[in-house]
Design a protein that fits this description.
single chain, about 500 residues, Jelly Rolls, 4 domains, 5-stranded mixed beta sheet, 34 strands, globular, disordered N terminus
């Protein structure tokens, strides 16, 4: 393998201005040097790359063909741009393909965060000789936009295409990503239950690259039903790539389960995927629109020209055979109202199904639990549907927006998800469990007289924080609490006959 120097390619300092508008993908400006650029008027033809067409955005185009393998970074997060109003609220997409055909998204970004409308994509791997199309687009303004472009030649490329984790149980996961080119000697995965610790400070797992088009890593010692973050990098022997990530995993949970999208430490979504997250406040549009007022909710929307087909999925839940899971959630409509004196618009009804299956995918959602229609923007409406598991396993509930074309562009906000179980409160199981000694300074034993298999134990403090988990897989077991502070804790015992909670005291 030919070694490449770790250096910047043709670094150019200064402002490069493009006076002539590049109206189409086919007339994209060729980038050859690093530096700061200014687009022309953003009024060209938009083409779907990383973002769908929505509210008729306009585009402005560039292209870049790297002379060697490397990484590119593009950012409009500059002081010269206005990042707090819609004048510079642009999106950036990097794609491959031909302008006359379908483009394949490589990476893209809309907003830096909830308050900064500028965009950036950092350290995107690129392959020598491949042409990358770069589109800036805006639905709000045609004003020019400043941005920086940087190409860096590298020897060892980091992985970039990752797939949803697969969960075999409440305590193990398989991670998948596409191989880099050229394939390295091995990959390193760094995982942690702490979302905020940087790469390299968690638990390190090393896996060979293998001969398949993708690589995989199995992690089987994660605390049951917990959330984790992970980074991945390539090890090429003489050098290592930068880390890719963080990415997040959400192990299946036992019931009961709630998600109000308010826990920032769990990325607010807590494993709910595909619908957008909305931070509602007194100054947002719409204002104070979460269930209860200010806070977070997720949303989907209809189309005024065609039927909708938009799916989103809950995190997995572990159910026993015959267990009845009752799903509840709330919805509320919203339509953008025109300025006075124009008459108010009436939101179009939004139709959707609650589905369930064995994966977070349309193909995996084989069962429609119940259909619903939301028709009011006055307040949140509660929806409820029961589902009985035929076999023990991991299940994923989903919401399928299948609304017919509507007369009015309408949003459906969803909040306050809850799933309860007929096994969650089991008096016989509670009475059959023996927890001793209690109080205790170090070890607690758990047994039962119903021959129930104890799967796991989860201990929480009185603030609801999980402080310890333990896998058992037997009719009796033991857990050490010597590392916990003195106080009162709730012990949730998950068995094949249901779930029970006991209060324990650490001396």
């Amino acid at each position: 393998m030919k070694k490449l120097l770790l250096s910047l390619f043709l670094l150019t300092i200064g402002m490069i201005t493009n006076a002539n508008a590049q109206a189409t993908c086919a007339t994209a400006i060729t980038l050859t040097t690093n530096g700061t650029y200014t687009t022309g008027t953003i009024n060209g033809t938009f083409k779907v790359a990383c973002f769908a067409t929505f509210a008729t955005p306009k585009g402005y185009w560039y292209k870049f063909t790297p002379p060697s393998n490397g990484e590119i970074s593009i950012s409009s997060n500059l002081l010269s741009n206005d990042g707090v109003t819609k004048s510079d609220d642009t999106r950036v997409s990097i794609a491959t393909g031909v302008c006359t055909g379908t483009l394949t998204c490589v990476d893209g970004n809309d907003d830096v965060d909830d308050v900064n409308y500028l965009s950036e994509v950092l350290n995107v791997p690129v392959v020598a000789g491949t042409t990358y199309l770069i589109q800036w687009d805006s639905r709000w303004s045609t004003l020019p936009n400043d941005f920086t472009f940087t190409f860096t030649a590298i020897e060892c490329a980091r992985p970039t295409v990752f797939y949803l984790p697969e969960y075999a149980s409440t305590s193990s996961t398989d991670l998948y990503w596409d191989q880099t080119a050229p394939a390295p000697a091995e990959y390193e995965v760094d995982w942690s239950n702490d979302f905020v610790v940087p790469a390299g400070s968690g638990t390190l797992v090393t896996v060979p690259a293998g001969a398949l088009a993708y690589s995989t890593a199995n992690i089987s010692d994660i605390p049951a039903s917990s959330n984790f973050r992970f980074f991945t990098r390539a090890d090429c022997g003489t050098s290592q790539s930068s880390w890719s990530g963080p990415f997040y995993g959400y192990l299946p949970v036992t019931l009961p389960y709630t998600n109000g999208f308010e826990d920032v430490s769990n990325n607010n979504t807590d494993g709910f995927i595909n619908y957008a997250l909305f931070n509602s406040s007194a100054t947002s549009t719409p204002a104070s629109y979460a269930d209860g007022g200010d806070g977070f909710a997720i949303y989907t929307f209809n189309s005024v020209t065609a039927a909708s087909d938009r799916r989103a999925y809950f995190r997995g839940v572990s159910l026993q055979a015959g267990e009845i899971a009752t799903v509840t959630f709330k919805t509320r409509l919203y339509s953008i109202q025109p300025a006075a004196p124009a008459p108010a618009v009436i939101p179009s009804p939004i139709s959707f199904n609650l589905t369930v299956g064995d994966s977070q995918s349309a193909a995996g959602q084989a069962t429609v639990v119940q259909g619903f229609t939301s028709s009011t923007d006055a307040s949140y409406t509660t929806h409820t549907a029961p589902f009985t598991a035929t076999t023990a396993g991991i299940y994923y509930f989903g919401i399928h927006n299948n609304t017919p074309a509507g007369a009015t562009e309408t949003f459906l906000f969803i909040d306050s998800i809850g799933i309860t179980s007929n096994l969650s409160v089991n008096d016989n199981l509670v009475n059959s469990l023996a927890v001793y000694p209690n109080p205790s300074k170090d070890l607690i034993n758990i047994s039962n007289n119903q021959n129930a298999t104890i799967n796991s134990i989860e201990m929480t403090d009185l603030n609801g924080r999980v402080v310890k988990t333990q896998m058992i897989n037997g009719t009796e077991g033991q857990i050490s609490i010597s590392d916990l502070s003195a106080g009162v804790y709730m012990m949730k015992v998950v068995t094949d006959q249901g779930t029970a909670t006991k209060k324990v005291i650490k001396e």
